[in-house]
Design a protein that fits this description.
The complex is a heterodimer.
Chain A (H helix, E strand, L loop, with lengths): L2 H9 L9 E7 L4 H14 L5 E5 L5 H6 L8 E5 L2 H4 L16 H23 L4 E4 L18 H17 L5 E3 L2 H7 L8 H7 L5 H15 L7 E4 L10 H4 L13 H15 L3 E7 L2 H8 L11 E7 L3 H12 L6 E5 L2 H10 L4 E4 L5 H15 L6 H23 L3 H6 L4 E6 L6 H9 L3 E2 L7 H9 L3 E10 L2 E14 L2 E9 L8 H13 L3 E4 L8 H11 L7 E4 H7 L6 E6 L2
Parallel strand pairs in A: 1-2, 1-3, 3-4, 4-5, 6-7, 6-9, 7-8, 9-10, 11-18, 15-16
Antiparallel strand pairs in A: 11-13, 12-15, 13-14, 14-15, 16-17
Helix pairs in contact in A: 1-2, 2-9, 5-6, 11-15
Chain B lengths: L2 H13 L21 H15 L14 H12 L3
Helix pairs in contact in B: 1-2, 1-3
Classes of the chains: A alpha/beta, B mainly alpha.
């Protein structure tokens, strides 16, 4: 985006909005064009929302952050430059570049970084914070020739790296990836010396534009995809197994097919971060099973579920995989080396990201890995991520077991050896609870989403409570699968938000959750902020079953009514209170 | 109005969104309250982008009206 486009973007009318996104841009220099680009990029990403970008005081980065009130702002974006750590690391200060000054420069930079870290951490307790580390070149104040890195320069770089590594452990802090910025904005073409000296703004326009684009993307991280469906022949491995046999397919340096090995290793990495991996291949099933028994196979069959290996259309395989995973096509990436297969699946599922695997093109495969990482990238890998595949296998086993046994649901649940752990405690850092509220569609009380800031504000309200539920049965753990947010008003509970993962359906966890609420708070009545949405059919069915009629807004029912209608519950229940 | 003048008007309109198109050709630092030092720097950046010029910020004090900007751009776009 160039400056004229950014200014034109900002001229466009936006609808009046009661809740504009308020972003604070903290930088030690005059924000000038960076503010313009940043506001335009945010507007581009949020065309229906009013965006306000405010800035702090010139040359007082840490102070601007420290003075930020705990309410009134939704996101903080921090852009650090070397002169914020010590003015002598900029060019507007003439504080001295003598050799004797260097130890003191490093020392004061350390102190400034410590102050910044404290300010950023404090702010991250109430709003998300995005941080851009120094992007400009250090001035030539070191004694070494510029081609040689000197000890003081390296100490400064180490200090910034340590600062970044330390804050990036916080779930509410996101650090802009300098390697990615380098790709968009070449380091040698960033610094505008004249502009810095005459106006206090140090960036050339393309650099300001690149930082703004990445910062805006960082403040509005998109929902990561959940599942990847991969082909096998000439994709997961080189060669067609049905033609060359299981011993001749390859993914190694000797056969010049190493990029397939990298792809396998990459899929393993995704699987270990909770991404669901499935296979859709037109192949002989026995051959594929034999291929997966090869000891040098990097992606093991334990990483993959389900395998759709037959001669039917790929779109049919994709449909069955979606059903098994119980997720929508918009959350899935399909990869196949055949453009025809990719086109066939794309025609059936336009929302699915369908990608042709560029076999024999090393650079294109490398770019594909980076693209797929972006599609699945997430800030935190949770416990639930690590057990997702296990729980989906467990759910399938549960369905199969029930079909085979022919038991009634009561008999079946009684033998499931299920336990639920209810946790009460308002932990704002509970990223899984926050994630469930913002991504669950089917069992969702009203479809309302919460921003980071709204989530923290809600939990800080003394009248509110947060209950989460974790489930496990003999088929495996499901992890944390339900979240309930509410308020206590005497003997009445008002439920503002209630979501449950679709993986947890048909186990009467929702009934046990309500029973737990009545008991825990000795409540006589529960009122629900219920709203029908296009996708919360399963929740509507639950209420219809419980009430004997479809739910309506201002939904409420008493303890007596619930007790009379609730089916038998067989779970072992444990209650945990945190904080 | 020639093509260059139309592009100039677009630049001015980007930087001074409240200025009506017919006011732009007669606009100046005196007549446009929003024309402060930051707006002047933004205007220079926009002109550089639009016309591919390298404008030295030392020349900023010259660029105090639409007419002055038009003359400056003409001179530097066609230095002969």
């Amino acid at each position: 985006m160039n400056l004229i486009e950014a200014l034109e973007f900002l001229k466009q009318a936006v609808p009046e909005d009661e809740h504009p996104l308020k972003v604070f841009l903290a930088c030690g220099f005059t924000p000038l064009h960076l503010q313009t680009f940043f506001a335009a990029q945010l507007r581009k990403r949020l065309p229906r929302q009013r965006v306000e970008v405010k800035t702090g005081l010139f040359r007082d980065l840490a102070g601007s952050i420290e003075r930020l009130p705990s309410s009134g702002c939704d996101v903080l974006a921090v852009v650090i430059e070397w002169q914020d750590l010590d003015p002598r690391l900029g060019i507007r200060s003439l504080g001295g570049w003598r050799t004797a000054d260097l130890p003191d420069v490093v020392k004061s930079a350390n102190q400034a970084a410590a102050r910044l870290e404290q300010a950023v951490r404090r702010t991250s307790t109430f709003i998300p914070v995005c941080v851009c580390l120094p992007t400009l070149p250090l001035p030539p104040l070191f004694t070494t020739p510029t081609r040689q890195a000197g000890a003081y320069e390296l100490q400064l770089r180490q200090l910034v790296a340590s600062f970044a590594a330390s804050i990036s452990n916080e779930s509410s802090i996101r650090v802009l990836n300098t390697q990615h910025l380098d790709e968009l904005s070449p380091p040698h073409a960033r610094f505008d010396v004249q502009l810095e000296l005459m106006t206090g703004f140090p960036y050339k326009l393309p650099h300001a534009s690149a930082i703004a684009e990445l910062l805006a993307a960082l403040t509005q991280n998109s929902e990561p995809k959940k599942g990847l469906i991969t082909d096998l022949d000439d994709t997961l491995w080189a060669g067609i197994v049905g033609e060359v046999g299981t011993e001749r397919i390859s993914w190694d340096l000797d056969e010049h097919t190493h990029m397939h090995g990298l792809y396998q290793q990459f899929l393993c990495s995704l699987a270990s971060a909770g991404v669901l991996i499935a296979v859709a291949s037109k192949n002989d099933r026995a051959l594929v099973e034999k291929a997966f028994e090869r000891r040098d196979m990097i992606l093991s069959k334990e990483n993959v579920y389900p395998f759709e290996v037959h001669w039917s259309r790929k779109s049919e395989s994709a449909l069955r995989i979606l059903k098994t995973w119980n997720i929508g096509p918009e959350a899935v990436v399909f990869i196949d080396d055949s453009p025809m297969e990719v086109a066939e699946v794309k025609a059936e599922f336009p929302e699915m990201e369908c990608i042709v695997f560029p076999k024999n093109d090393y650079q294109a495969i490398w770019d594909l890995l980076k693209r797929v990482r972006d599609l699945f990238g997430k800030s935190i890998v949770s416990t639930e991520d690590s057990i997702r595949l296990k729980s989906i296998r467990g759910a399938a086993a549960l369905r199969n077991a029930r079909e085979v046994s022919g038991d009634s649901l009561d008999d079946f649940l009684q033998s499931a050896d299920a336990s639920i752990r209810f946790t009460f405690g308002k932990q704002a850092a509970d990223s899984r609870a926050f994630e469930l509220i913002n991504k669950t569609n089917q069992f969702n009380l009203n479809g309302k989403r919460l921003s980071d800031a709204a989530w923290k504000t809600y939990l800080n309200d003394p009248a509110t409570f947060l209950m989460t539920a974790s489930y496990e049965d003999k088929f495996g753990p499901l992890g944390k699968i339900a979240v309930l947010l509410g308020r206590i008003q005497g003997k009445v509970l008002k439920i503002d938000s209630w979501v449950m993962s679709c993986r947890a359906f048909s186990r009467r966890i929702e009934h046990q959750s309500l029973k737990q609420l009545f008991q825990k708070f000795d409540a006589e009545e529960i009122c629900f902020d219920y709203q029908a949405t296009p996708r919360n059919g399963p929740l509507q069915e639950f209420f219809t079953g419980l009430l004997g009629a479809p739910p309506v807004t201002d939904l409420r029912f008493s303890r007596t009514a619930f007790s009379g209608r609730s089916p038998s519950l067989f779970h072992r229940v444990e209650e945990v209170v945190n904080g | 109005m020639d093509e260059m003048e139309a592009r100039l008007i677009r630049c001015f309109s980007s930087v001074f969104p409240d200025l009506a198109a017919e006011q732009i050709p007669t606009s100046s630092v005196e007549s446009v309250p929003a024309w402060d030092s930051l707006a002047a720097v933004t205007l220079v950046a926009v002109l550089q982008e639009e016309f591919g010029l390298q404008i030295n910020l030392i020349d900023l004090p010259e660029l105090v009206s639409f007419a002055a900007v038009r003359n400056y751009v003409r001179k530097h776009k066609n230095p002969s």
